[in-house]
Amino acid sequence: MGAKTHYAQHYSPHLLEAFENPHPGQDIFTCLESQEFTSLCPITAQPDFARVRIAYIAHLKMVESKSLKLYLFSFRNEGVFGEDCVGKILNDLVALLAPKYLEVQAHFSARGGITITPFANYATPDYASLKEQRLLKCL
């Protein structure tokens, strides 16, 4: 029997790991999605469930997927609004990867008859038009 995976009990950006991009000269658009994102409402402490989609064009580094899974899981016991989750994920991944382009979107399950779908994106100056196009698409 293999070693059990340790899951952080609190939000921890230090869980994220990166590896060298094997194709830094190419604009490969990578999408990662988690169907199992959970955080807590900071007011009611009820769980909020979401599908989180992260898409990016790497520069020199790429995110390691298991570390991303563990990082996303670290939100499970955090009292944080969905919009803040998306902002933190974006900021943490930009700090780790320094990508050409990165976007984060979460589709939170309805609670009280309302769904929340926050979106945030980042781009270097060379990809500013892509940032604007993708942002306008979400409006």
Automatic annotation (TrEMBL):
Binding annotation for substrate: V63, E64, S65
Job of this protein: Catalyzes the NADPH-dependent reduction of 7-cyano-7-deazaguanine (preQ0) to 7-aminomethyl-7-deazaguanine (preQ1).
Protein name: NADPH-dependent 7-cyano-7-deazaguanine reductase
Enzyme class of the recorded protein, top EC level: oxidoreductase
Pathway, per record: tRNA modification; tRNA-queuosine biosynthesis
An annotated GO cellular component: cytoplasm
Organism: Helicobacter mehlei
Gene: queF
Subcellular location as annotated: Cytoplasm
